[in-house]
Write a structure and sequence with these properties.
heterodimer, A: about 500 residues, 22 helices, B: about 70% helix
Chain lengths: ~500, ~525
């Protein structure tokens, strides 16, 4: 079996096994505590090994596409199971796996309430996300795109916090509804291709060569853009995010913020900018305006939150604004910056959500004014928190800085005004990050003693790994920039697209 | 009719024989179980023989029936659904429910599980007098004619599906329409409600049949032929007559299909009917009438004045169906509204003829059938002899904890209806969108998206409710569903999942040979039933 198909199927199978292993009688028979947790850890380790195998073997270094998998699925409609991997997908899958390992390593062992189902859903979401990063058949892409939402919906609705049901419904209706608009666009593109060539296909590479009149390419691209903008999220479409992130259980928050949002950015690079370069260029001013709005609005709201998870959620909106800005800046530097920013934000915010979850578990609240003064009691937790808060405000030397700097550099020649406005976002970022650090870690400690232990060795190892990644990303981003550049489309397709430019 | 130009699709005489045998058996000695078994065997035989026929088809195409791919496919769906529905009714009819009389409803009120916030007050109120009346009925007499009526209704549906002439079509419609009120009134424990629903159906269906009949008469006046298809005005006849005929026939069909200006009756009637009968109305009669609608338009080109009309009907059907479903508290009512909306989606595909259309219609009908039947089977399995009958949505609260298997199956069916992978409904909706896109039905597709978003809300709302953890520790509710229902749910779930993951199986048989013109009467047909998926 091809490693790519295995990458997608392994989490799903592992999740199923985890569910089975959680059965009380089976667990007793095998003398296994935490069977589900162990199983998912094993699955993730296997998956990582598989990914390392794919990364470091070079059988065909000829093209930019590292691996390929093809199998027909619905031949009458030209639908195939088609998976391809380039540097961009590889980088994002690495991010997904690192975060999931951290998540399972730190946050999910405590889940005792139907732990098997929980791990199964977590791994199913991961499988869907990895599928989204790999699919190069548009139908398959959409299939995974929708498929990952349902397990996430269940995770939020069952294991979430007090207002979980509302948040879960909102999350699903927003993301699924926008997905349907993307489906219309996909079909529009396919039918347009069929009209011209008489071939019914959903193949990404073939469709990229479709000659389109400017008007319809604009309409089709907008359909894709709306779906990705909801996921990313861009500002007017972000309303699901604060609720979903706040109400989700820790592990689901990490997956949401760390990886799920990145599918939006990934989709924009892969399907907006690369499928419709001209239309994307025309939409760029609006998209960049939305990016700026997201940066400022998210940061501003983040400054005014008392709820720790909500603060982090709004800061995500602000950070993803930079991604939007970078993708539509029209230069490869901007896209590289956006990718670095996605990786750094995934690691940093994922870690922040893990810390918020750990605090919530110990203090049973997310209200920052109630938490107050953890430094004395839990120095290791607080130190870790400080590191990631500083990363989030864009401290030079850490990943976020590299990403934001590249984006600002790319945006400056396009529009200095936008550059300046985006830079204001950085100032606000330090306001909310430091406010968070102040009120949680540094404020006067609460009079009553705080129950709960500091981070143990296992947690510290996990966080140290994430920190190391962030530092490497910040100090030496060059290999990541060259490595994770999205592969250009095959020459023929690219030429066709260019020659059809109006 | 002279023997040598007799042409009959086999299921019709088979079902008639089965009905006759059943009548004889009832006359000899009443036994519910025996009748159910005869019904099952007959339906099974009919299902197996949907593709075969007796006699040779006349060459000039003037037959009463025809048997092309489309007819065979929809007949297969009808037969399969009827079989499932009879299986679903097995426990209701032969089980101990009829004997328990008023017991259940008293038990329901004192049951600690159903706290006041859950139990819908109407259901309990309505149930009390009705339960009392059901106690007075002789328990041995209940259900004997039930399978007879199901068989009769299926016969009507088969006749409609195979009809190539107005005569068998109308006869089939009436046979179906006559057997349904009887079936609707079978709801035990809710006799008043059921009778009300049956009366409503009887009267409204009579009115719509009258309109349809008038339309057929006008069509005959205009063309001088009873051939089933769009009337083309002959010489000397004003085109207005043909137009009026088409509009009246369409109105009658839309009424049976519950497209929007004529949709009012469906939620009321389905709510009043027993759950399997509601499934019968939502699936069998809808498929039959939809199949006829496609046949009616496949033999000729639709006149241009129909465009605006159809456009309006589709938009209204989708929007109103979904809007109505948003605030329902009764599950059967919600399914009725959602079925209205699904008919709207189907009409989009119907309204976009082209190379994609047959596959789309086939896939959507299969998806709709399997998922809807699945939901109704789950409702039936949820009902306990001493508890609720599962039609109140709030009763489903926390089901994932008390009956995880049932809840998972139900969630799967609802996801499929909402069009989320991996259910078969996802692929079906995708096909509808592809077909519509092919015809630039932009507005209709946007309406479809809006409707689907509303649909997401109300379908997922049920799933959300099922995931609310119960306040009391999970109680395993009595014995699980009866084995035949469990088997049925498993089969339907497998169809839904396998159909969703490998959809090529469903659309393949319909794809290659479909002529929009008059299809040749006796194509060497390929048998296709939902089980072959």
């Amino acid at each position: 079996m091809s490693p790519l198909a295995a990458l997608v199927l392994l989490p799903v199978l592992g999740g199923g096994l985890a569910w089975v292993l959680d059965h009380p009688r089976l667990g007793a028979a095998l003398r296994l505590r935490d069977g589900a947790w162990r199983m998912s850890m094993l699955t993730l380790v296997l998956e990582t090994a598989l990914l390392a195998l794919v990364t470091f073997r070079h059988p065909t270094p000829a093209g930019p596409w590292l691996a390929h998998f093809y199998r027909p699925w619905v031949p009458p409609l030209g639908i195939a199971v088609r998976l391809d991997m380039d540097g961009l997908s590889l980088a994002l899958i690495w991010l997904s796996l690192v975060l999931s390992l951290a998540c399972v390593g730190v946050a999910t062992r405590q889940v005792t309430y139907h732990a098997g189902v929980f791990h199964c859903l977590l791994l199913a979401t991961l499988g869907g996300i990895i599928g989204t990063f790999l699919a190069t058949d548009l139908f398959l892409f959409f299939f995974f795109w929708e498929l990952m939402l349902v397990p996430m919906f269940v995770l939020i609705a069952v294991w979430g916090h007090e207002n979980r049901q509302y948040a879960a419904m909102k999350f699903l209706v927003f993301t699924q509804g926008s997905g349907l608009i993307m489906l219309l666009s996909i079909l529009g593109l396919v039918i347009a291709h069929y009209r011209v060539t008489g071939v019914l296909t959903f193949d990404y590479f073939t469709l990229a060569a479709t000659p389109l009149p400017p008007m319809s390419s604009m309409v089709l691209m907008t359909g894709f853009f709306i779906a990705f903008a909801v996921k990313l999220p861009a500002v007017p479409l972000h309303v699901w995010l604060p609720d979903a992130h706040t109400q989700a259980p820790t592990a689901a928050s990490v997956l949401l913020a760390g990886i799920l949002l990145k599918t939006g950015g990934y989709g924009m690079i892969r399907f907006n900018v690369m499928l419709f370069p001209d239309a994307a260029a025309r939409l760029a001013p609006i998209a960049m305006g939305l990016g700026i709005a997201g940066i400022l609005y998210g940061a501003w709201l983040s400054c005014n939150q008392r709820d720790l998870k909500r603060l982090i959620a709004y800061s995500s909106i602000s950070h993803m604004g930079f991604v939007l800005l970078g993708i539509f800046s029209g230069s490869s530097m901007g896209v590289q910056g956006a990718v670095i920013q996605m990786l750094a934000h995934g690691l940093g915010t994922g870690a922040l959500f893990l810390i918020a979850g750990a605090i919530g578990e110990r203090m049973h609240t997310r209200d920052m004014q109630v938490i107050g003064g953890l430094w004395r009691v839990m120095p290791r937790l607080s130190g870790t928190g400080l590191f990631f808060a500083v990363a989030s405000l864009g401290m030079p030397g850490l990943g976020n800085f590299a990403g934001e700097f590249l984006v600002l550099l790319a945006i400056w020649p396009v529009s200095p005004l936008m550059g300046a406005l985006a830079a204001i976002g950085l100032v606000l970022a330090s306001v909310y990050s430091l406010r968070m650090v102040n009120s949680i870690f540094l404020a006067a400690p609460r009079p009553e003693p705080i129950a709960g232990a500091d981070f143990g060795a296992r947690q510290m190892v996990v966080f140290a790994c994430i920190m190391a990644f962030l530092v490497v990303l910040g100090l030496y981003p060059q290999p990541f920039m060259t490595f994770s550049t999205p592969s250009p489309l095959p020459v023929a397709a690219g030429a066709a697209t260019r020659s059809n430019a109006p | 009719m002279i023997m040598h130009d007799l042409f009959l699709p086999t299921p019709l005489p088979l079902l008639s024989c089965g009905i006759a045998i059943m009548l004889g058996s009832i006359a000899w000695r009443r036994s519910i179980r025996r009748n159910l078994s005869i019904g099952l065997v007959t339906l099974l035989l009919a299902l197996v023989s949907v593709g075969s026929h007796i006699g040779a088809a006349p060459v000039d195409g003037a037959a009463l029936f025809l048997q092309d791919r489309w007819a065979v496919y929809t007949a297969g769906l009808v037969g399969f659904s009827a079989l499932c529905i009879l299986l679903m009714s097995w426990r209701d009819m032969s089980g101990p429910r009829a004997d328990t009389g008023t017991g259940p409803h008293i038990g329901m009120r004192t049951d600690p599980r159903t706290d006041p916030s859950i139990g819908a007050p109407n259901a309990t109120l309505n149930a009390t007098p009705a339960g009392a009346s059901s106690g007075t009925l002789d328990s041995t007499s209940i259900g004997d004619e039930y399978s007879l009526l199901v068989l009769l209704g299926t016969l009507g549906a088969f006749a409609m599906v195979y009809a190539a002439n107005f005569m068998p079509f109308f006869l089939g419609l009436e046979i179906l329409g006559i057997s349904l009120p009887g079936l609707i009134a079978y709801r035990q424990g809710h006799a008043m409600q059921a009778c009300e629903a049956a009366m409503k159906y009887l009267i409204l269906s009579g009115v719509s049949s009258a309109i349809l009949l008038f339309g057929i008469g006008l069509a005959y006046a205009a063309t001088g032929s009873l051939r089933f298809g769009l009337p083309v005005a002959g010489n000397g006849i004003p085109p207005l007559v043909a137009m009026a005929a088409t509009v009246m026939i369409l109105a009658g069909m839309f009424f049976k299909l519950s497209a929007v200006p004529f949709h009012m009756w469906l939620p009321d009637v389905m709510q009043g009917a027993p759950v399997p009968v509601a499934a019968f109305m939502a699936v069998v009669s809808k498929i039959a009438i939809f199949s006829s609608l496609v046949r009616y338009f496949s033999m000729g080109h639709a006149p241009p004045f129909l465009d605006t009309l159809l456009y309006g009907v589709i938009v209204l059907t989708i929007l109103v169906g979904n809007l109505l479903a948003l605030r329902q508290t009764s599950l059967t009512r919600l399914m009725a509204c959602s079925s209205i909306a699904h008919m709207g989606y189907l009409l989009i595909a119907f309204y976009s003829p082209g190379p994609l259309q047959p596959g789309t219609l086939g896939a959507y009908l299969a998806a709709y059938t399997a998922s809807t039947l699945g939901v109704f089977a789950a409702i039936n399995a949820f009902a306990t002899p001493d508890g609720t009958d599962g039609t109140t949505i709030l009763d489903w609260k926390g089901l994932f904890f008390s009956r995880p298997f049932l809840a998972t199956a139900m969630a799967l069916m609802l996801l499929s209806l909402a069009g989320i992978p991996p259910g078969i409904g996802f692929f079906a909706k995708f096909e509808i969108m592809a077909t519509g896109m092919d015809h630039h039905r932009g507005l209709l597709l946007l309406v479809l998206v809006a409707g689907s978003i509303m649909g997401l809300y109300y379908y997922l709302n049920i799933i959300r409710l099922m995931m609310v953890p119960p306040s009391l520790p999970a109680i395993r509710r009595g014995p699980g569903a009866s084995p035949e229902l469990t088997a049925l749910i498993i089969v339907l779930s497998m169809i839904v999942v396998v159909g969703g993951l490998f959809p090529a199986f469903i659309i393949h048989p319909l794809f290659p040979a479909y002529q929009p013109g008059p299809p040749p009467a006796a194509v060497p047909t390929q048998r296709l039933t939902p089980e072959s998926m």
